[in-house]
Amino acid sequence: MTNQLGLDFIPLTVYVVSLLSIEMNRPAMPTSDNTPILVGAGQHTWHESDAGRTPLDALHAASSKAIADVGSARLSGAIDALGMIRFIADTTPGVDALFPRNPGAALAARLGITDPALYQGTIGGNTPQYLVNHFAGKLARGEHTAVLVAGAELLATLFSVLRTGEDISAWADGGTAPATVGNEREGHTAVELAHGLYEPINTYPLFENSLRHHLGASEDEHIAHIAELCSRMSRVAADNPLAWRPQFQTAQQISTVEKRNRYIGYPYTRAMNPILEVDMAAAVVMTTVAKARELGIEESRWIYLHGGADLNDIWYVSERPALHASPAINLAWKSVSAAAGITVDEISHFDIYSCFPSAVHVACREIGLQALDDRGVTVTGGLPFFGGPGNNYSLHAIAQMMDTLRRGSGGHGLVTANGLYLTKHSLGIYSTEAPQTAWRDTDNSALQAQIDAAPRMTVASDPSGDATIETFTVGFDREGPKRGIVIARNDAGERLVANTPDDATTLQTLMTEAPIGHRGKVSVRDGINIFHL
How big is the CA angle at 325 (ends 323 and 328), to the nearest 5 degrees? Predict the structure, then answer.
């Protein structure tokens, strides 16, 4: 069934029955003393590369700051679990050997935390919020008393070292990786990989052009809109001393294509892309209301997590019926909002995951927020301006949200986090106000079953023949346009991914003629699908 926008959705009656079923099958509710709260946050940004600063040093700096932020000398003795955000380079062959295998164990030793349970997240920008949601449940059930969640990315230094050959052998520790929390799974198919969809700089522009076509906007209108969105994020970054690029940029500066602001993946200029080469670390401390009282933590430090949800969209991009939507974000938000009794109009502050403008716009549409809402979409400045520290950005967003709520006049904050290619989604509602009901875990598996049961596209086993373009992008290098990528549908209704010929005329046509809906013919050469306009 589809709504008036043509998006697959779950009928309201099914959704209500699902929520009722979840409620009826919940275990007995914990007491209010078991309510999970966040009580400490710490962040660091190092603008100067330093090969002598190890990942453990960075983790220790942020974690020490988070522990000090709690204001209790007895906290370290209460922490019985560490959740580590996995380094984004940790799965890159050759590079992974440069990083510690078990940074949590070394961090605990340096902090004086005795024999904690150790966990690490999977690869993906959703991981920080996912771990916060995960540990909230464990705290509420009494499985842990206090938890430190920490992550660091020293990508600016890493890239510098790879260029200069400096010695960073001290980074590694030779330990054994701890238990992994989350879904460890490759994010793309072999066909997607072969045609360039493994790179987010290629995939998110495909979503953007699909969204523009769906909205019926002209190129000028749409680029002006996403440039203004980015400009507003840069204004937040300009006021954030932790931001990697703390300079305000106008929409015109962001959208103007020039040597220092070239296209990366059409229609995104460099200023619309996340900054990956950063050195940053963040940490938060979680506990329960009862433990906070026992440790003498002032209530002014408490931030309540009113609810969290973790859902995945159809895993592979090429199988998603709509390339400008996220049913998982929509369902996750409905679940969290209903459980917390908080609507989008009651949210004072947002941090919508902002790796690319399409990620922001799609998430906003799914939760019922205008991307240019006066409340803004980020408390940090967003990944293109604050910085995009690999898997760890959203831990900065959570830490910044805590600070924003503490300094403000109360209210609620929403953090959304996204992993892979609008694939993995984690949401959390934060507040200075205590929830009216005891903590309840979201039954993510029941909600996920609804997403998994939705129709999906069949990928053509033989892509040769006539097909119609559904979305497209052009990838650039420093010299100019380099690679055309299209997602198309053949006359049998099957999905296919293809590249175009790389001649200048074809690549220019893709950018000037808005070819969604145009027909062409696909041939296969050396295992690569070629779409001929």
Answer: 120
